[in-house]
Specification:
The protein has a seven-stranded parallel sheet with strand order 3-2-1-4-5-6-7, with helices on both faces. The chain has one domain: NAD(P)-binding Rossmann-like Domain (Rossmann fold). The longest helix is centred in the middle third of the chain and has 28 residues. The protein is of the alpha/beta class. Helix 6 links the parallel strand 5 and strand 6.
Length: about 270
């Protein structure tokens, strides 16, 4: 029996390795023109999902679409501003028209800012909150009816370790990312009965287009690498793998959770 069990485990492992974890899923991914969004779009597609992606950069959107097409995936990309109220229903409509359903949503688009609270303009405060948390609400609200009709699904919202911490000049960024956490937990509570899971990802220091200017400076990069327990910056693919877990059936009993993916940055904070 012991040998038989060993063989069975080996066979199951082989089957699992051959599975595409998002087969039959249809995903919307925002901020997919570069960085975490692009890496996630490519990974989700490789795992079997049909992908609708957007970015405010037309050039970035076209580049991501070309990468998907180069490996045989028929994703749909649009250049759009997630802060525009028309974008959310448009993305959902594209998913339904092109692929017939919507099961997965990754709210990744986001921006930063840097000014002391007393020197922060109302316009800058509103810009950060509109993109980082209001846009996530708009897309969740637009997606929920389709996800309920599909029998459930997974929402992955990108927050930040700064949802739980702070630093100088980050009042709108930190408060908006904390807002993402609160929004996600509430959606998880309200829509779990429909089979919809909602979780949020908290990246740490990730080497992306938004951070490259700083992290390409050796001194700054070395400081942040030393701050992490793993002694390296995160890569967009690191975050895409966590998003894949949360979007897949591997996380079927995970909802309302915040996953910190920071290389151990916050262990000593």
């Amino acid at each position: 029996m012991g040998a038989a069990m060993r063989y069975r485990r080996r066979d199951n492992a082989e089957v699992y390795a051959a599975m595409k974890r998002l087969e039959g899923r249809v995903a919307i991914i925002t901020g997919a023109g570069s960085g975490i969004g692009r890496a996630t779009a490519l990974l989700f597609a490789a795992e079997g999902a049909r992908v609708v992606h957007c970015d405010r950069s037309a050039e970035g959107t076209e580049a991501t679409q070309a990468l998907l097409a180069a490996v045989g995936h028929d994703g749909v990309g649009i250049a759009a501003d997630v802060a525009d109220e028309a974008t959310a229903p448009r993305l959902v409509a594209i998913a339904l028209e092109k692929f017939g359903k919507l099961t997965t949503l990754m709210n990744n688009a986001g921006v930063g800012s840097n000014a002391l609270t007393g020197e922060m303009s109302i316009e800058e405060w509103d810009r950060v909150h509109n993109i980082n948390v209001r846009a996530q609400f708009l897309l969740i609200r637009a997606a929920l009816p389709a996800m309920i009709k599909a029998g459930g699904g997974s929402i992955v919202n990108v927050a930040s370790v700064m949802a739980e911490a702070t630093d100088y000049g980050l009042a709108p960024y930190c408060s908006s990312k904390a807002g993402v956490a609160g929004l996600t937990r509430t959606v998880a509570l309200e829509y779990g009965k429909h089979g919809i899971r909602a979780n949020y990802l908290m990246p740490g220091p990730i080497y992306t287009g938004l951070t490259r200017a700083n992290f390409d400076r050796d001194q700054i990069r070395a400081v942040w690498e030393k701050k992490t327990a793993l002694r390296r910056l995160g890569q967009p693919e690191d975050m895409a793998k966590v998003a894949l877990f949360l979007a897949s059936s591997d996380a079927d009993y995970v909802t309302g959770a915040g996953i910190r993916a920071d290389g151990g940055l916050m262990l000593r904070a």
